Amino acid sequence: MTEIAITDARGRLASIIDTARRGPVYLTRRNRPVAAIIDADQLSQLLEDADELADIRAVDAAWEETERLGETPIPWEDVKRDLGLT
């Protein structure tokens, strides 16, 4: 894990960005991490993964709610037929 004090980072931005291409660089204040610099492609992937995880959690919550209420899910084929999509 690469860490650098914010005061030291001010004059080294270009080299910090180069380092961040290989892994996160944590900026510290009073020896505590307060921010991170990461590669833009890695950030995009993390955001996509977070969205997908949120979707998975929502599906899991819906299934739990269905089970808790003792409901029977409507099959997708029935929904499509009722909406005239088949």
Structural class: alpha+beta
Q: How far is the N terminus from the C terminus?
A: 54 Å
Largest sheet data: 3 strands, mixed
Integer tally of domains: 2
How are helices and strands ordered from N to C? Answer: EHHEEHH
Radius of gyration: 23 Å
Low-confidence stretches: none
Strand order of the largest sheet: 1-2-3
Described by the principal axes of the CA atoms, the overall outline is elongated
Number of helices: 4
Approximately what portion of the residues adopt beta-strand conformation?
A: 15-25%
Number of strands: 3
Q: Roughly what percent helix?
A: 55-70%
| Integer average pLDDT | 95
What is this entry, summarized?
By secondary structure, this protein is of the alpha+beta class. It contains 4 helices and 3 strands. It starts with a strand and ends with a helix.
What does this 3D model show about the protein?
This is Antitoxin. Pfam families: PhdYeFM_antitox. InterPro entries: Antitoxin_Phd/YefM, phD/YefM_antitoxin, YefM-like_sf. Belongs to the phD/YefM antitoxin family. A hairpin with a 2-residue loop joins strand 2 (25-29) and strand 3. The chain has helices spanning 6-9, 13-20, 40-69, 76-82, and strands spanning 2-5, 25-29, 32-37. The protein has four helices and three strands. It has two domains: 2-38, 3-Layer(aba) Sandwich (YefM-like fold), CATH 3.40.1620.10; 41-82. Strands 1-2-3 form a three-stranded mixed sheet. With 86 residues, the chain is an alpha+beta fold. The model has no long low-confidence stretch (mean pLDDT 95).
